[in-house]
Design goal:
Elements lengths: L1 H20 L17 E3 L5 E3 H4 L4 E6 L6 H11 L3 H7 L1 E7 L6 H8 L4 E4 L4 H5 L21 H15 L11 E5 L5 E6 L9 H8 L5 E2 L2 E2 L5
Parallel strand pairs: 3-4, 4-5
Antiparallel strand pairs: 1-2, 3-6, 6-7, 8-9
Length: about 220
């Protein structure tokens, strides 16, 4: 009888497991040890060990797409308005990494008004080590809290700029992600972008890092900055 009951219950258990897993993203496993010997570059072409970025301080690390991406431009503009005193109060820093040659760092910071740290990973070694996706896929901007441009106009502007400069500022297939790391090898949050519009809302990142919320043009969670 016990064997008969087991044969009846087993299919039900399997169905329950399927229901529980439906629609859920697999857990992101971040192996920071394999990143210890990888480097990023600053605007002066200096090499910085990736693990040194978050070695002594909790750090919000955002990986963006190429520097001609209008979605990333809007996201960077919102990152730029986070008050420094909010970060200092929580002892947190923000670092953005792009897949472009480091010569584009200075003009991109000027274009977006971003005054925090921006590095590049032109060979995308860290992108690959973190399994960030490499595929051309655009999502829905309906739920994105940081895209302020019309999508069609944004694409046209990006295309026009690419034609004007005649040089890609990073691999156009590369998608990004966001992490809250450190001190040391602590991983507090990890997100891998599924498409070009799948950025983590900045206030969600700040919350994971213990930083006070900020009011953004499309995410007005507080009355005043």
């Amino acid at each position: 009888m016990a064997d008969e009951k087991k044969s009846i219950d087993s299919p039900v258990d399997k169905v329950d497991d399927l229901k529980m897993s439906r629609g859920e993203k697999p857990e992101i496993v971040v192996d920071l040890e394999k990143l210890h010997d990888l480097f990023v570059y600053d605007e002066m072409e200096n090499k910085i060990r990736f693990s040194d970025i978050y070695k002594h301080q909790k750090t919000v690390v955002v990986f963006i797409r190429h520097f001609l991406c209008f979605v990333c431009k809007d996201y960077m503009e919102d990152l730029a308005i986070i008050p420094l005193e909010y970060l200092q109060a929580a002892n947190v820093r923000i670092v953005v990494i792009g897949p472009a040659p480091c010569k584009f760092i200075k003009p991109f910071k000027k274009e977006t008004g971003f005054n925090y740290t921006l590095y590049t990973d032109p060979e995308r070694e860290i992108y690959k080590a973190l399994n960030l996706k490499e595929k051309m896929e655009h999502g829905d901007d309906k739920n994105n809290k940081h895209v302020k441009q019309n999508v069609i106009m944004g694409v046209l502007r990006s295309t026009w700029k690419a034609m004007r400069v005649q040089e890609y500022e990073g691999n156009i297939k590369q998608q990004g992600g966001a992490f809250v790391l450190g001190p040391g090898d602590a991983v507090h949050f990890a997100h891998i972008d599924e498409n070009s519009l799948d950025h983590t809302p900045i206030n969600d990142l700040l919350e994971k890092a213990g930083v006070a919320a900020v009011s953004f043009p499309k995410d007005k969670r507080v009355q005043h900055i």
